[in-house]
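Example record

One chain of 205 residues, shown exactly as stored in the release files.
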Amino acid sequence: YHVDSLEEVINSKIHGTFIQQWLEVNANHDSLHITLVKKDKIKIRWINNTLHYTLPIHLEGKFIKHVNKQITLRNEVPVSTDIELSMSTALAFAHDWQLNPKTSLKHWRWKKEPVLRVAFININLRKRLDRFLKEQGQLLTSLVDRELAKILDTRGILHKIWIDIQKPILISKQQQAIWLKHTAQALEARLLQDGRYLGLDVRLF
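Predicted structure tokens for this chain:
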């Protein structure tokens, strides 16, 4: 399976605005409305049975501060910054030969500090937003795992090989038909890397 095809599918599943939610930023219940938008194409590399992703996103946040029950303050200029997320997927097989991807969010890089400006005060929200990204990482990684398991149907491929190899093969039609029939006892499979391709090395015994 070509890695470029994986890129196309993953990019079709994660696009546009994929997270919108309110986030409390302190004990006073001041809130930030977070919007995460995919800024550019997700890039994938395939190294040693592991897929590595680079996901550029844009973050914007609109802030509401509660002074009292009647008064609230809003930031005129939204918090706005770009982030580069790095994820990776370790590929292995489950007991039934279905691919069992395990994706994790490794780290991220802020292109610009997420600074909030309210009433002439600058507040750096990086620590709170770091926690938010860590909490939301599971949403992204579970989406990637689900789509990879659909795309790379290793169980279906290996089941077909198991059945096909045991079909009788006609090796002679002279006088009396002679057939060769294999009886498989066991199967082994491992992932291969060939440039930008993911492959399977399958052995039947």
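Notes: Helices lie at 3-13, 126-151, 154-164.
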